[in-house]
Specification:
alpha/beta; five-stranded parallel sheet; two-stranded antiparallel ribbon; binds thiamine diphosphate
Amino acid sequence: MQEPQAWVPTDPRSRPSPNQVVAGLKGVDEGGAELVQLLTPEGERVPDERFDRYADDITVDDLKSLYRDLVLVRRADREGNSLQRQGELGIWVPLLGQEAAQVGSGRALRPTDMCFPSYREHGVAWTRGVDPTELLGIFRGTDHGGWDFTGKRFHPYTIVIGNQCLNAAGYAMGQRFESKVGDPETGEATICYFGDGATSQGDVHEGFVWAAAYDAPLVFFCQNNQWAISVPLDRQTRVPLYQRARGYGFPGVRVDGNDVLACLAVTRWALEECRTGNGPVLIEAFTYRMDSHTTSDDATRYRLADEVELWKLKDPIERVRVHLTRRHGVEPGFFDGVDGEADALGERLRAFCRSMPQPGPERMFSEVYAQASPQVDGQRDEYLEYHASFTGEEAS
Ligand SMILES: Cc1ncc(C[n+]2csc(CCOP(=O)(O)OP(=O)(O)O)c2C)c(N)n1
């Protein structure tokens, strides 16, 4: 097992008072000395002794492709937000600011790896080949997620905080029991996404304990976006989150979550650890939620604009753009082309959303089990009869 990074406890007297925390006066924007970074916010490539080798093969074309993913994922997210505002979706969960953490880690996965998302992972979904249109039903309230979970190896979204860590731990233990671990080429791994607030949930703790006890090939990927709705990180933990792993007996790493290259490299390392039998691993992607928690939330009520302004300077897309332009001489035409693709994606999403059919009343019963169940069939028939009892306007 690799040694976790060292941690020096902060002086308790320097901790913010509860009032400062509640008022959002103590915004965090520095990841500390342990932060793994390969691309600075200014777009400069900086060396990293430990993780460079996991990014050495990344070509300019790969970087352009990562940039394209970041831009398209952001556009899909912004369209989702707008569609909610136009009344086409019941709610939207924005990922603004977290594109690099999601695209970088998602692009590190192989098709055979399994992925357990929370509810904000639209960027990871993108890297698994789930089209953004497939996410819309959840937020329009017409289904629970319509993609092919087993084929894409991307589990349904989980709204119950931290619960997916248990599913993921069980799945990864299965990979271990079925001897799918050991060979770096063919070995499988699982990745589980959750937020900083989720680390206070029992399910996440249980997931850590089980995964550690069974050496499960599981990467716990925590997107620390600094806020659990209106609760800041200081109310979740007294130690940096990545250091928690040590107490469970596995390594933890803090990566710059706004640096797509670093997220890719660190996740590749973590997956390799898992595939070869050295899992589990905890990655804390140090990032920031630039928008409200959901479209039902108003972040301006609990955090200061200054904090948001600070994080704007660390934008995950801008740094790749600057790097491609300055270091590799990529011409504006490339960026214009990606913007054009983003416009087309936005149009496609809007058109799809507005033409989504309203599912029939039997739909909530039809996809429950793979094989017919007399109980569910009975409930369906009863409900259809009840539904048919309404007439005219009452029924619509
Ligand atoms: C078990 C449970 N408790 C409470 C909630 C309500 N809830 C929804 S999101 C959220 C905050 C989650 O914050 P975090 O884990 O940091 O993830 P983020 O939304 O910031 O990505 C809470 C408490 C829930 N969905 N499930």
